[in-house]
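Reopening this ticket.

The earlier resolution said the output was attached, but the attachment link was broken on my side. Pasting everything inline this time so it's all in one place.
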Amino acid sequence: MLKPIQKNDDDYVILKTLIQRKLGFNCEQYKDTHFKRRLDVRLRATNSKTYKDYVKLLQSSNTEYPELLETLTVNVTNFFRNSEVYDIIEEEVFPAVIKSKSTGLNKSIKIWSAGCSIGVEAYSIAMLFHHILGNSIKRYNITITGTDIDKASLQHAQQGVYNETEMKDVRPAFLNKYFTREENNYIISDELKKIAQFKKQDLISGPKMNGFDAVFCRNVTIYFQKELQEQLYMDFYSALGKDGFFVMGKTETLIGPSKDLFKSFNAKERIYAK
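Inline output:
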C-alpha cells in the first residue's frame, strides 16, 4: 500500500515535471486527488513502491510513457450517454439552433465537443442533426469539432470503429442507418464522418476557439482545479455566438463569473444559454 504523499513532496513534483516535459501533459490543471489516483494505477502495474521508483522506471523505459498517457486520459464513454440530456437536445436545443439559421443567409451550424475522447459524443450529435433535418440537412453547413489532448483517442474517433459496449444506448433505427457491422465492431457511416472533425487541443493552454452555436463539455471539468474550472467556463462562454448553448455534465456546476452570465435553459440537465 502506497503511503500518502503530500503535494509538496519532492518526488511527486519531479514526476509531474517529467510528465509535463515528456508528454506535454499539464498536470497542474488536475486536482491532486484525481491525478494521484491515476498515477497509482501505473505504480501498482509496474510494482513501483514510491514515486521515486516510478521516476526511475520512466527514465529507463521507452514503453511506459504511452501506458501512462493512456491511464491519465482514459474515459469510459458510450454513444448517447445520459440519454435524458440528449432528449432535451433533440427536442429543444437543436430545433432552436436550426430555427435561428433558417431565415437568414447564414446556414452554418458549428458545434464543439470539448474533451471528446473517442468521438462518441460528436457522432451522437451528428446523428441527431441528420435525424431532425432529414433531407433538409443539405441546406445547412454543419461542422462538429471534437477536441481532446489524447492522440490515441482522436485516432479512434477518426477511424470511427466501436465495440458493443460503446453502442449500448444507440437506438435500433440509428444503428441500422448510421453503422455497418463487422463481426463484433460497428463502423460509423461516411455521411457522419463528413460533418465531424477531430483535432488535438489542450483546453487550458491551447488556442481559444469561437463562433459556436453549442459547446458540449461533459464530465471533463470535474477533474480540474476550481480556478481552472472558472477559466474554462468563461472560455466556453466566449466561444459561443449569440444565443448559443452550453451543455455540461450532470455532476458539474457553474462557478465564478460565468454563473451570472449564462442563463439556465434546463437546470436539471445542466443546459445553459448565452
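Reporter confirms the inline version is readable. The first helix runs from residue 10 to 23. The chain has two domains: 10-73, 83-273.
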